[in-house]
Amino acid sequence: MTRTAFLGAYGYGNLGDELCLMEAMAAFPSTESHAFSVSPAWTLRCCPGLDACFADGAAMLALRPDRVVFGGGMFGVPDAFRNWMPWIAQAEARGAEIHFHNLGVAWLLKDLDWLDATARGVIARLASFTVRDYLGVERIAEADFGRLPRITFFPEADIPPDTGLADALLPQDEKLLGLSIIPMPNMKACLQQEAGLVRDLLAEFAGHQIVPIVSTVHVDSMAEDDMAGCRDFIRDFLPGARIAAPALLDRDFWHAQLTPRRLKGLVSRLDVLVTQRKHNAIHAIGCGVRVIGLHPLEDNSLRRTFVAMEHRLPPGSRCLGLLYN
């Protein structure tokens, strides 16, 4: 029997994070799979095969896991390391095997107070240590973790799609343009400043119907409400376009129906995806769908994804950096 505790940013309303959990569960098959989540019902619905969720480190220890997998999206950040390392160390002391898996790693040098002798010992003894891209290796090296990770290159790209929802919602024999936009202040600013460039980009897709590809409606951040981002983008750049599946802009429908695999099923039907969300780009790459990334040049999140997945990019795909003052 193997009981595994999965640690990540789960339950926050980001289907990309639960996609990473699905991949981690496949990479670490277990007799029992438990995951941290701030919304257990959401995470359990998104991730078939997950047995239960726990709310904090004490609840994780009470499970007495045989294995702890720390990962799940952009989780290699100082706050996550600080919050979970003491609990991970206790789990290891009780005999649990520890894995750092498929981590998205932020710039760490601004805050390394958590990287004490106990944390260094845990890292030295990790059963496995992987990050998802080249920049993650650089960030780990800069922070002097004492060992370097291997690169996974976004293995969640190979989670299979569920096309049932796409078959029910999307028209046949129509050209489909998917849109995935994050309404963060810097994204809004660069879209406004570079509006002419964005309109020139979109001119190629005149006549396409629009498919809102909403992967995040965050539980406590309006800046990560992709439904609002998509609505605003259509209003500002494609006001006359037809929306192929208006239900995808209905919050109740989205919360009840969308899962990582159903979202990928929608992406699989597109002719092209214009996205600012990295995991929607990953869905497109995994399906062989042309993808165009839009991102503020000062933000490397999407750019590093395209670099890591360059060997799998469908023809015509590219990442377009946008300036703003």
Number of helices: 14
Q: Give the helix level as a range of percent.
A: 40-55%
Shape: globular
What summary fits the major beta sheet? 7 strands, parallel
Could you tell me the radius of gyration in angstroms? 20 Å
Q: Would you identify the regions where 5 or more consecutive residues have pLDDT less than 50?
A: none
Protein name: Polysaccharide pyruvyl transferase family protein
Keywords: Transferase
GO molecular function, one term: transferase activity
Organism: Falsiroseomonas frigidaquae
Give descriptors for this structure.
325 residues, alpha/beta, 7-stranded parallel sheet, 5-stranded parallel sheet, 14 helices, 12 strands
Would you kindly provide a written description of the structure presented here, covering whatever features stand out?
By secondary structure, the protein is an alpha/beta fold. The protein is built from 14 helices and 12 strands. The strands form 2 sheets. A 7-stranded parallel sheet has the order 3-2-1-4-5-6-7, sandwiched between helices. This is Polysaccharide pyruvyl transferase family protein. GO terms for molecular function: transferase activity.
